Amino acid sequence: MKLLTAALLLLFIAMCFASAEGVKCKCSRKGPKIRFSNVRKLEIKPRYPFCVEEMIIVTLWTRVRGEQQHCLNPKRQNTVRLLKWYRVWKEKGR
Q: Which residue positions does the secretion signal occupy (predicted)?
């Protein structure tokens, strides 16, 4: 009985680690400096236990490259300005 309980416990722990691996931090590499006019969508994801800082994911659109997603560093001044600009822009209903 103890062997069965130990095996089930090990199986449960392995499943927990496998599910945590699938939800990794998307922002392992930070994106480039961007133009505010190219922003289509901005997502702010909270900090997770496996992620050092919050994730700011921006979707850009350009004629040449089409739609692209980039992660931005939340501590950079340009990102802080983008967040302020985007909030004002959304309040105006655009």
A: 1-22
The number of beta carbons lying within 10 Å of the beta carbon of residue 28 is 8
The residue type of 73 is N
> What architecture is domain 25-92?
Beta Barrel (2.40)
Integer Rg of the chain from CA: 20
Amino acid at residue number 34: I
pTM of the model: 0.59
Q: Where are the domains of the chain?
A: 25-92
What number of residues does the chain have? 94
What are the structure tokens assigned to 24, written together?
């990794």
pLDDT per residue as tens digits for the range 19-76: 444 456 667 666 666 777 888 888 888 877 777 778 888 888 877 778 888 888 888 8
